[in-house]
Design a protein that fits this description.
With 405 residues, the protein is of the alpha/beta class. It folds into two domains: 12-52 and 297-402, Alpha-Beta Complex (Aspartate Aminotransferase, domain 1); 55-292, 3-Layer(aba) Sandwich (Aspartate Aminotransferase, domain 2), CATH 3.40.640.10. It contains 13 helices and 15 strands. The strands form four sheets. The protein has an eight-stranded mixed sheet with strand order 2-9-8-7-6-3-4-5, with helices on both faces. The chain has a three-stranded antiparallel sheet with strand order 11-15-14. The site of pyridoxal-5'-phosphate has 14 residues, from helix 5.
Length: 405
């Protein structure tokens, strides 16, 4: 049989797909091979920095496995987890029946299910800039367009409503709101949330309310956006990944607002969920345990994060040519370095990596212009480690500033 020597062609959609948070790792590996120790501040995984999954969640998964819950679960999730998530939404002021809740492989899968169910090829979705890059990655896969709305560093990284309003077209289907925010650490005030809901409602858009950091405000849990308007078309998301310290379990939940306007979307999401059979079954037992059990680890975690955020803010703001907006939640900060003419955020981040082994992610990986000079820092390392890392960043930043003089 004649065989072709031509490589197997890949789909064009992959060319549109980028995921900088993991792509920078390839560069880091090269630096490691050259003998420099790399300090990975690129990915928001608390487990990697010694924050441990609460034991009662591990026991719940272990028990589920031993009790034989290793087969397929119902596609939308096991009833106990859906009921626990519905009760949790309801307790947060978002009254939902378990029937409108799905248990997913992390927030990530829920986002993909909703966007795939709602948005057609060529249609548009409003995504914050900077954004968590999953949204643009999913939109690239389904052939839809992300349209970036500005969030303003000079206004605590809050959305620029006038800019947002001007971007809405007949093709716009959804508005993504990440609050508390990755990568900026912002929390939106109630007035901003109300304005976003009003804007979406008046244009018939569905809001995807990404609340994976909802319990990680430094001052305490942040209210759910949908609590302000339980009858608005809002799909709310959370997971075990961040506030329950189990990102590798891929366990999350989504609540589809009670408005009948979302009934067709709910049916479409369930139909798509049937096609992937179920999310990992034993982990769903941990969702029940998490949402009905002890959450005291969260208070400890919030305190640890607040301390790290304070140190991060102080150190970056005292570096010449550098500034940062103080984060108010989660474990990210988005400092800005003054770039010498002709240089980009990628130049800074890769230069820093090669010179010091400190790995951050450039702002352009989150949809910001490369000439803005923004980069994201994950501040989960211990305070002494962060001190040492920031010292190295300051040293490199001084060198970088003078590199084009
Ligand atoms: C804003 C945001 N949404 C979603 C996710 C993905 O979460 P999950 O692990 O629940 O899929 C992350 C992870 O970093 C995130 O920062």
């Amino acid at each position: 049989m004649a065989s072709s020597s031509a490589p197997i062609r890949t789909a064009r959609r992959v060319d549109r797909f980028t995921y900088a948070i993991r792509q920078v790792v390839a560069e880091a590996r090269k630096v490691e091979q050259a003998g420099t120790k790399v300090r990975y501040l690129n990915i928001g995984d608390p487990n990697a920095f010694g924050f441990l999954t609460p034991p009662h969640l591990i026991e719940a998964v272990e028990r589920a496995m031993r009790d034989g819950h290793n087969g397929y679960a119902p596609s939308p999730g096991i009833p106990a987890a859906r009921e626990a998530a519905a009760a949790d939404f309801t307790a947060r002021g978002v009254p939902l029946d378990a029937d409108r809740v799905l248990i997913t492989s992390g927030t990530s899968e829920g986002i993909e299910l909703a966007l795939t169910a709602i948005v057609d090829e060529g249609e548009e979705v409003l995504v914050p800039s900077p954004t968590y890059p999953l949204y643009t990655a999913v939109l690239a896969k389904i052939g839809a367009e992300p349209v970036y709305y500005r969030t303003d560093p000079d206004n605590g990284w809050l959305p620029d409503l006038d800019h947002l309003r001007g971007l809405i077209t007949a093709k716009t289907r959804a508005l993504v709101v990440i609050d508390p925010n990755n990568p900026t650490g912002a929390i939106y005030p109630e007035s901003m949330r109300r304005a976003l809901i009003e804007l979406a409602e008046s244009h018939g858009l569905v809001i995807l309310a990404d609340e994976v950091y909802g319990d990680l405000g430094f001052e305490g849990p942040v209210p759910a956006m949908a609590a302000l308007a339980p009858d608005a078309a809002i799909i709310s998301y959370s997971s075990l990944s961040k506030a329950y310290l189990a990102p590798g379990w891929r366990a999350g939940w989504m609540g589809i607002g009670r408005t009948p306007r979302l009934d067709a979307a709910l049916a479409a999401i369930k139909k798509l969920a049937d096609g992937r059979l179920c999310s990992p079954a034993p982990m769903q037992y941990a969702v029940t345990a998490a949402l009905t059990g002890d959450r005291s680890h969260q208070a400890t975690f919030r305190r640890a994060l607040a301390e790290r955020a304070a140190l991060t803010t102080a150190r970056f703001n005292e570096m010449p040519g550098m500034s940062v907006v103080a984060p108010r939640a989660a474990f990210y900060a988005m400092p800005r370095v003054t770039l010498p003419p002709g240089r980009t955020d990628v130049d800074f981040v890769l230069g820093l990596l090669r010179a010091t082994g400190v790995l951050c992610v450039y702002g352009s990986g989150f949809g910001l212009p490369a000439e803005g000079g923004y980069f994201r820092v994950v501040f989960l390392a211990s305070l002494p480690e962060l001190e040492s890392i920031y010292k190295d960043v300051a040293g490199y930043a001084a060198e970088f500033a003078s590199s084009n003089e």
